[in-house]
């Protein structure tokens, strides 16, 4: 009998759960609700909320919108978004995650300090990611984004550095960057760093590694656009090379199933529980047919 197990620790983090609840609450009142960008990087959940009436718009469409209600998702937005909302009489339902909101405030305070011109505010994060755009926006676009250790080499080490991180980046690489900067910073400059990685994500890693290692085959369920999904999937692959990224039951490769005794289904912080259950059921049905 093949064992199929869902990882209890996988699924939406509280920031995403809160954003979805806020959207559902508004939609059940029957109001027209727009969401600026995908509410979560999972096309199936986006589809489910679309069926409930949620209209997803991009930033260009947002600029054209007037007299409407718009939900801001957990990733947060730069100050410019709030200015446009005010000008266009848009009511904001702000679902920015409190962890992201705190980080935005810290970066803004750092930027507002008097010595702002003499230091580099560096954000370890993904260029163009919504959360990172929101963070860079706190510094009127001046913060430097580095995606990986390699890019830290291009910083100006004669100038002071303040390092922050996008909430969903890897803790290990963050500390590698810290070490690299410590080694290279000029004695005349100062270096301060702040581990601003969300523990909702970081704490999942050890458990996820354990889970992935304890099964013959892993289906990691995540939208292909989710950066948190990509990072956690890489962790699964490190401990279990027989790990596969899918975002729907249709993507289950049946040829992987024969000969395995235990199958694990896990996912990212943006993966809905109902989807992992659906996939687990599809695997069981396929095994029965074989
Ligand atoms: S991963 Fe953390 S910071 Fe990001 S939305 Fe979830 S709870 Fe908030």
TrEMBL record:
Please state which protein family the record places this protein in. Answer: Belongs to the IspH family.
Record-annotated residues binding (2E)-4-hydroxy-3-methylbut-2-enyl diphosphate? 41, 75, 129, 167, 226-228, 270
Task: Return any one Pfam family short name.
Answer: LYTB
GO BP term (any one): isopentenyl diphosphate biosynthetic process, methylerythritol 4-phosphate pathway
From the UniProt record, give the pathway where this protein acts.
Isoprenoid biosynthesis; isopentenyl diphosphate biosynthesis via DXP pathway; isopentenyl diphosphate from 1-deoxy-D-xylulose 5-phosphate: step 6/6; Isoprenoid biosynthesis; dimethylallyl diphosphate biosynthesis; dimethylallyl diphosphate from (2E)-4-hydroxy-3-methylbutenyl diphosphate: step 1/1
Source organism: Bacteroides fragilis
Names of the cofactor(s)? [4Fe-4S] cluster
User: Would the keyword Metal-binding be found if you checked this record's keyword annotation?
Assistant: yes
InterPro entries named among the record's database cross-references:
LytB/IspH
Instruction: Give binding positions for dimethylallyl diphosphate.
Output: 41, 75, 129, 226-228, 270
Binding residues for [4Fe-4S] cluster:
13, 97, 198
The UniProt keywords, alphabetically, are: 4Fe-4S, Iron, Iron-sulfur, Isoprene biosynthesis, Metal-binding, Oxidoreductase
Q: Name one GO molecular function term.
A: 4 iron, 4 sulfur cluster binding
EC number, as in UniProt: 1.17.7.4
Function of the protein:
Catalyzes the conversion of 1-hydroxy-2-methyl-2-(E)-butenyl 4-diphosphate (HMBPP) into a mixture of isopentenyl diphosphate (IPP) and dimethylallyl diphosphate (DMAPP). Acts in the terminal step of the DOXP/MEP pathway for isoprenoid precursor biosynthesis.
Query: For this protein, what reaction is catalysed?
Result: isopentenyl diphosphate + 2 oxidized [2Fe-2S]-[ferredoxin] + H2O = (2E)-4-hydroxy-3-methylbut-2-enyl diphosphate + 2 reduced [2Fe-2S]-[ferredoxin] + 2 H(+); dimethylallyl diphosphate + 2 oxidized [2Fe-2S]-[ferredoxin] + H2O = (2E)-4-hydroxy-3-methylbut-2-enyl diphosphate + 2 reduced [2Fe-2S]-[ferredoxin] + 2 H(+)
Q: What is this protein called?
A: 4-hydroxy-3-methylbut-2-enyl diphosphate reductase
Name the residues annotated as catalytic in the UniProt entry.
131
Q: Which domain of life is it from?
A: Bacteria
- Residues noted as binding isopentenyl diphosphate in the record, renumbered to the chain: 41, 75, 129, 226-228, 270
Co-factor remark: Binds 1 [4Fe-4S] cluster per subunit.
Q: Which gene encodes it?
A: ispH
